[in-house]
Amino acid sequence: MALPGTRGDAAPPAIELRGISKAFGPVQANRDISLVVPPGTIHGIVGENGAGKSTLMSILYGFYRPDAGQILVGGRDAGITDSQSAIRAGIGMVFQHFKLVPNFTVVENVILGAEDGALLAPSVSRARKELRRLAAEYQLEVNPDAVVETLSVGHQQRVEILKALYRQADILILDEPTGVLTPAEADHLFRILKGLRERGKTVILITHKLREIMEITDNVSVMRRGEMVATVPTRETSPEALAELMVGRKVLLRVDKAQAAPGAPVLELAGVRMVDRAGVERLRGIDLAVRGGEILGIAGVSGNGQTQLLDILGGYPEAGAQVSGTARLAGRPLPLDGTDARARRQAGVGNIPEDRQAEGLVMDFSAWENTVLGRHRDAGGALMDHDAIRREAAAKMERFDVRPRDPELAAKNFSGGNQQKIVVAREIESRPVLLLVGQPTRGVDIGAIEFIHRRLIELRDAGAAILLVSVELDEIMALSDRIAVMFDGRIMGERLSGETSAAELGLLMAGASPSGIPPEQGQPDTPDHEPSKGVI
Amino acid sequence: MTRLPRWADLVLVPLISLALAFAISALVILSIGQNPVEALKVMVTGALGSSYGWGYTLYYATNFIFTGLAVAVAAHAGLFNIGAEGQASLGGLGVALVALALPWPHWGVALPVAMVGAALFGAMWAFIPAILQAKRGSHIVITTIMFNFLAAALLNWLLVNVLRPPGSMDPASARFPESTQLPRLTDMAAAVGIEWGKSTPANISFLIALAACVLVWLLIWRTPLGYEIRAFGRSERAALYAGIRPARIIVIAMMISGGLAGLMAINNVMGEAGRLLLNSAEGAGFIGIAVALMGRNHPVGIVLAALLFGFLYQGGAELALWTSIPRELIVVIQALVILFTGALDNMVRMPLGRLFGAR
What we know:
The complex is a heterodimer of chains A (about 525) and B (about 350). Chain A is of the alpha/beta class. Chain A has helices at about 55-60, 85-90, 105-110, 120-140, 155-165, 185-200, 210-215, 240-245, 305-315, 340-345, 355-360, 365-370, 385-400, 415-430, 445-460, 475-480, 500-510, 520; strands spanning about 15-25, 25-35, 40-45, 70-75, 75, 90-95, 170-175, 200-205, 220-225, 225-235, 265-275, 280-290, 295-300, 320-330, 330-335, 350, 435-440, 465-470, 480-485, 490-495. Chain A has a domain at about 265-350 and about 430-520: Rossmann fold. In chain A, about 30% of the residues lie in helices and about 25% in strands. In chain A, helix 14 (about 415-430) packs parallel to helix 15. Chain B is mostly helical and about 350 residues long. Helix content of chain B is about 75%, strand content about 0%. In chain B, helix 4 packs across helix 12 (about 265-275). The mean pLDDT of chain B is about 90. Chain B: InterPro entries: ABC_transp_permease. Chain B: Keywords: Cell membrane, Membrane, Transmembrane, Transmembrane helix. Chain B: One of its GO terms (molecular function) is transmembrane transporter activity.
């Protein structure tokens, strides 16, 4: 295979997989997969959720034994049977969810499991020296004595990379590494990865963000339904071509939508403030209005109060929080303090929560039980009508193309995209007046993203008001009719989506107030403003 | 980790665990110079070989069904109720107060009221730890353990100073009126012309325990409240999202749990002793934890596990009676069963999972 490598093609591939197959019961997660990764390259692996990427990487890292096939590292059979032997073969893995001990220091985390000798002190001082060297060599600056829980997410990720390098990894696997990073942190990560490549390390990057693939990888492999459908040099392909390979059909990466026809205001917020239990002011006076038939997108780096706003509107502010300000739903006052998510639903507020696995679904419940979560008392009566719920769940799964179409399967056994479809189906089909949407496509594959976006637009066109919170600026810009930018608990400004740019929004997201006006004075006193104006 | 087929999860794992527990018990019996085969024979004939043995086995099983259900209901809400022992003792107090309050004309009248008394006292004893957990975050495990001791102390004081009939030397209540004597299973069998289980304490409470199983099943898997209890037990944040109030679920689930534990008293206090004795629950509250664990918090599993422990209790008593195996060894066997079926569950499950995964 003529894949570009920075070294001569004579060198054996860093990793070669031959005919790897793995089945879980009746599910063939990997089918006869062969892959060649040249040394000193960054190799992207893309595929929808459930395509078998994670299984393949788990096999490579020794978590699973393949049913058939061979793994060669540097041209030799690596004999990988568990993660210890994978580490010995020079493979390091950075998981999506970090495996760090939060109250240990960086150096303690790095040597965890690699201590030499019964006494800790010599290991620690040796590791500290080695960390300084690695940090200098790969721009991985982290204070070795900082406690991990005090570090930002981006720095914690660097600790994970350092852990792998400290164990002398030559091949680094990163699973969705940018999912938790801000754009700036992601840029820094890419610089680190390029530095690793320059020094001859091999990087395997698993992601669903095609832009990242195009930006940083040398070669890209596409997986679909457990099979490796293509491996191509990145510069010879395009995001559209990759998306088509992943899904197996043409995909619209853009959202097609008609001009919005906003009606009467459905949600009006004025001066909403929230102080959490620790006394930190999370919301510092939010004024917003969302009209029927429009999507208001809230852009912002995560952690600037979006979650708190959604929780308050959903009727479950965090325990001990103090909420003030006024809200009206379809003209009627909406009490913001106190917790009553049920009353909120009865008033016509649908809610697609930010964290579907922790909030939107009970992971151990079957799919059909989850289709009535929060609406389980709506049918009335002393006993729940399981047959009716099952039937309705099967119909919902059909309409929302949830796969596999098995209402009895536990929510945890669906892929991320299909879990989200269950939540979306439940909330959209309850015909809400106002739909709260948090990170609707986080960790969701391309095919499902397109589907979920289309359903949201349909709901908008049916006259519902939609409040969309997302850290993906692309998504905000594609879906929203108006965009409000949140920073540090404030709305920094509002723009019509057709009249703004990513650069302008990015500036607002970083806290730069428009035309130098302090944000509080830049806000109107009443939320009852004209939404068609660009800047308010 | 490969998932086990359902039948293996529900049948194979407990059976293998049980076999392991008995194998090690056999080794222990061997090591004190006794014959394990003989011992097993004595236990099986003693507990299951006659209607007399069955009568006792069912009597013990009745206690364990109630306490097992109690632990299971709390477990579905993610709460570990270790206080079934104390709640069952208070249930006994409720039964005694009802039975001694009026000259009851017939057991059929006394029983429903006694059940209300038993459940109410048990529920109230669970209410305090529940409200402390819900409002103050005091851990339910700690508080329910403490309430076991409080219950023991309270009953000690009441039986010695308040309920003891004048002139009696025994820390026990007065005898309940004859009319409150519950029908024994023997009498009920005789009524349909079958001679069964002569002079055993098994009584109508066994049937009530089975009915409670059906009701608990309905509650947990068929009612909206059960849905909320399970949703809260599996994911507190999802429950909050769904508009389920944690404090309400904690209090309701614990009161149902305490009520079920309290109901045990209609079997041991009203059905058997006919008066309230000191330490009436005799550890059944703790056995309930093992029963719920082994029965996977499902009523069918709980009935089976309760029968197993009923067998161990009755078989153990027979063993102590007919062999020179000391009574303490019975406790060892029971402990091994709890250890293997409850605590060491994964020891069987994981190799089995690998076995199924390898196919």
